[in-house]
Design brief:
By secondary structure, the chain is mostly beta strands. It contains one helix and 30 strands. The protein has a four-stranded antiparallel β-sheet with strand order 5-4-3-30, with no helix packed on it. A four-stranded antiparallel β-sheet has the order 6-7-8-9, with no helix packed on it. Strands 10-11-12-13 form a four-stranded antiparallel β-sheet, with no helix packed on it. Strand 11 and strand 12 form a beta hairpin.
C-alpha cells in the first residue's frame, strides 16, 4: 500500500468505511487500533438501531431493479428486475406488494436540451407490481405517459400517478389494474400526495411552480397553489391541517393550508445556489426531514416555527428519496450517484452506515419483512 493510502474495511457484506492506513504520516498502531474500535462501535450502534425483520425497498433507476435491503445486517437481500428507469416506489397497504413507476422516456435533468434526447418509448411506461414474498415482477399496470411518482389512497384501492411528459395526473384501479381517469394539470408533474380522508389529491408541477389540488373522486382540479421554484415532494400533516412542498430551486418549503388551499408561508432552508430540497418525511408532523440533492445534507426542520434545527452534513452523494423508521429514530436516504443508502441515527445526528446497493438509488420505503 503506498504512503497516504487507505485501508477499506468491510463492515458487512456491502458496507464500507474508510480508515486511514498505518502508513499515513503520523499514523501509529495505537491510532489505527482506535479507529478500528470506533468503527466497530459505529456499526454496532447501526445494527442495534435497526430492528430485525425490517426491509428497505429501493428503486434503482439505472439498474432497472427494485433492491431489497436488510438494514440490520447492512446488506442487499435481493435485486428484482422490473423494467426501465424505476423511480417512484410505494408499498401496498398489507405490505405484500411493491408498486414502482417505470418509464421509457430518457433521463433529462434541469437545463437539458430535450430536443437532443432520443424520443420516448412509451411501451415501457407503467406501474410495475412486485410480489415481495416471491420477489418477482408479476404485472405492469397502464399508467399514462412517463409515470414518475405516485401515491396510494389510504384504503389501498386507487393509485394516483404523475405523468411528467404529458402534464397529467392518472388514477389506477388497483383491484382491476386498469386506468380509471387522466386529467390535465400543470407542466412536469412530479410529487403526489393523498389526503388522509382520501378525498383530495395533491400534485406538484415543476415548471409551473405550482401545487395542483384535485377532487380525488371526480378527478377535477379544485385549486392551484403557488410554490417556490421547481416544487418536488409533498408531505401532509395529519393533525395540523398543513402541507409542505419542497422547492428545489427556491431552497425552501412552501407551507400551505389544506382547509382553504392557501399559502401559509415560505420557509427558507439555505442558500438557493447550493441547497436543493428534494425529498421530505416526518414521523410525527412536528419535525420534518428534508434531503437536499447535491448539497448532500439532511435538514431537520421544526414545522411549528419553520426553523432549521440541524443540518446533518455529508449524508451522501445527492440524497433524494428519504424514509424514516417506524419509531422515528433513523432516516434512510437514497444516494443516486454513490449507488448507496445511508443510515442516519437521528438522535446522534450522524450517518452510522452506508449500504452499497449499486446503480442509482432513487426512491426508498421501509416496512416489515414479508412473513
Amino acid at each position: 500500500m503506498p504512503p497516504g493510502g487507505h485501508l477499506r474495511a468491510r463492515v458487512r457484506s456491502d458496507t464500507f468505511v474508510q480508515i486511514p492506513s498505518q502508513q499515513d504520516p503520523g499514523m501509529n498502531r495505537r491510532t489505527a487500533a482506535a479507529a478500528l474500535a470506533a468503527l466497530a462501535l459505529v456499526w454496532g450502534a447501526a445494527r442495534a438501531a435497526a430492528p430485525a425483520g425490517e426491509r428497505l425497498y429501493v428503486s434503482d433507476e439505472t439498474g432497472g431493479n427494485v433492491v431489497i435491503v436488510d438494514p440490520q445486517a447492512g446488506q442487499v437481500v435481493a435485486r428484482i428486475p422490473v423494467g426501465k428507469r424505476p423511480r417512484g416506489i410505494q408499498l401496498s397497504v398489507d405490505h405484500a406488494r411493491a408498486y414502482v413507476a417505470l418509464t421509457g422516456s430518457p433521463a433529462a435533468g434541469p437545463n437539458v436540451d430535450e430536443s437532443k434526447l432520443p424520443p420516448p418509448d412509451h411501451r415501457y411506461d407503467g406501474i410495475g407490481v412486485v410480489d415481495l414474498r416471491a420477489q418477482r415482477l408479476v404485472s405492469t399496470y397502464p399508467s399514462g405517459a412517463d409515470p414518475e411518482t405516485f401515491a396510494l389512497s389510504h384504503d389501498g384501492k386507487i393509485l394516483y400517478v404523475s405523468n411528467e411528459d404529458s402534464g397529467q395526473l392518472s388514477a389506477i384501479d388497483l383491484a382491476k389494474g386498469t386506468l380509471l381517469a387522466t386529467v390535465a394539470v400543470g407542466s412536469e408533474p412530479e410529487g403526489v400526495a393523498v389526503s388522509h380522508d382520501d378525498k383530495t389529491v395533491y400534485v406538484t408541477c415543476e415548471t409551473s411552480n405550482s401545487l395542483y389540488v384535485l377532487d380525488a373522486h371526480a378527478m377535477k382540479v379544485l385549486a392551484q397553489i403557488p410554490t417556490g421554484k421547481r416544487p418536488r415532494a409533498i408531505y401532509l400533516s395529519r393533525g395540523a391541517h398543513r402541507g409542505y412542498v419542497t422547492d428545489e430551486f427556491g431552497a425552501s418549503l412552501t407551507e400551505f393550508n389544506t382547509d382553504d388551499n392557501t399559502v401559509v408561508r415560505t420557509i427558507p432552508l439555505g442558500d438557493p445556489k447550493v441547497v436543493r430540497p428534494m425529498g421530505i418525511a416526518s414521523h410525527d408532523g412536528k419535525t420534518l426531514y428534508v434531503t437536499t440533492g447535491r448539497f448532500g445534507a439532511l435538514l431537520e426542520v421544526e414545522a411549528g416555527t419553520g426553523k432549521v434545527l440541524r443540518t446533518i452534513a455529508q449524508v451522501g452523494a445527492r440524497p433524494w428519496g428519504v424514509a424514516l423508521s417506524p419509531d422515528g429514530t433513523r432516516a434512510y436516504t437514497a444516494n443516486g450517484p454513490a449507488g448507496d443508502v445511508s443510515v442516519v441515527d437521528l438522535k446522534a445526528g450522524q450517518v452510522v452506515a452506508r449500504i452499497a446497493v449499486g446503480g442509482s438509488p432513487w426512491g426508498i420505503v421501509i416496512a416489515p419483512a414479508p412473513k
